[in-house]
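In this section we walk through a basic example: taking a raw amino acid sequence and producing a predicted 3D structure, encoded as discrete structure tokens. The instruction is simple. Fold the sequence below.
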Amino acid sequence: MNVPAALIGIAVLLVLTLALGLTLRTLHSRAHRVRPADVVGPELVGDDALGERATILQFSTDFCPRCAAVHDELGEVADAHDGVTHLDVDLTHRPDLAKRFQVLQTPTTLILDQDGVITTRFGGIPGRAVVEFELERVLGRDGA
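The resulting token sequence is shown next.
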């Protein structure tokens, strides 16, 4: 057995695995525009009302270590815009919603327009700048 060749092979596999993992992570945290096929009403997510102009809907779980930080950041984004509400739904107690919205990881974030139509979907931790961009796109569309 050639030990140096084996070590080189292991190093190459490690680098390829790392590159693939980083690529997949980057792709999952990007914004994905969706076709307005589903309308979310406040009663569906257990709240009284959606935002007047837009809603940032976050799906979390009790055991998600990153969800609390994302919750705080999305709350700050919503608070910075008039008529925008941030809702956080704990899927630990609502597996029906996980199935309905095909949530495979938490956090998953949806941006809804004023009518509750899903316009954008983020899987994983969304960057603040891209959330702001997508939210501005939705807010600009409502004419306000």
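Looking at the output, two observations stand out. Helices lie at 3-28, 67-79, 95-100, 128-141. The domain at 31-141 is CATH 3.40.30.10 (Glutaredoxin). In the next section we compare this with other chains.
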